[in-house]
Design goal:
Layout lengths: L1 H24 L5 E4 L2 H26 L3 H24 L4 E6 L5 E6 L3 E7 L3 E11 L4 E6 L2 H5 L5 E5 L4 E8 L1
Parallel strand pairs: 6-8
Antiparallel strand pairs: 1-5, 2-3, 2-7, 3-4, 4-5, 5-6, 7-8
Length: about 170
């Protein structure tokens, strides 16, 4: 029991730093970006490196680096996997770009039938992912989990493309 508690205390901050960094850099799920990310991410990286150096300093006394190397390897693997998923996610071609009359919401429709709703505000841009269907009579149906609760966008709203073509947005709240 004492060894488990010592292990948790020693590595918990490092694991939390890895998880927080993955959360801040994930772009293939619903996410929000703030203007402060350019400050938060470098500080987070600095704290991670500092934490690793402190852990290695204390491990050097006992010359036992096995657990530390495992934790760091798993963390780096997860961060790399996150960046690979993000790279493959971003390689989509935009089919249509729509906006609402207030200009604060943008809808990107991709060729693979996925959709991204972007909500712009002064300091935050939030991105919500879903699937779409576009009918011949210009009804746009977007399906995503709890999309109405996340975006405050309701069905039967008019959206426009860059040529001022009107579409009727319908949201399917899975």
């Amino acid at each position: 029991m004492k060894n488990i508690l010592k292990f948790l205390v020693k590595y918990l901050t490092l694991v939390l730093f890895f998880l927080f960094f993955i959360k801040k850099s994930t772009k293939f799920l619903d996410y929000c970006e703030t203007v402060y990310d350019f400050i938060i991410v470098p500080i987070l990286l600095f704290l991670m490196i500092l934490n690793i150096l402190i852990i290695y300093y204390y491990d050097a006394k006992s010359k036992n680096f096995k657990n530390t190397n495992r934790i760091i390897t798993i963390g780096i693997f997860l961060i790399t996997l996150n960046f690979v998923f993000d790279k493959f996610y971003r390689q989509k071609s935009v089919l249509k770009e729509l906006s609402m009359q207030n200009g604060n919401h943008q809808i990107l429709l991709y060729e693979n039938k996925s959709a991204e709703i972007i909500m712009h505000s002064h300091h935050v841009d939030c991105h919500y992912m879903g699937k779409f269907e576009l009918s011949k009579d210009k009804y746009l149906k977007i399906s995503a989990e709890n999309l109405i609760n996340k975006t405050n966008i309701y069905s039967d709203i008019e959206v426009f493309d860059k040529f001022n073509n009107k579409y009727i947005l319908q949201i399917n709240n899975n």
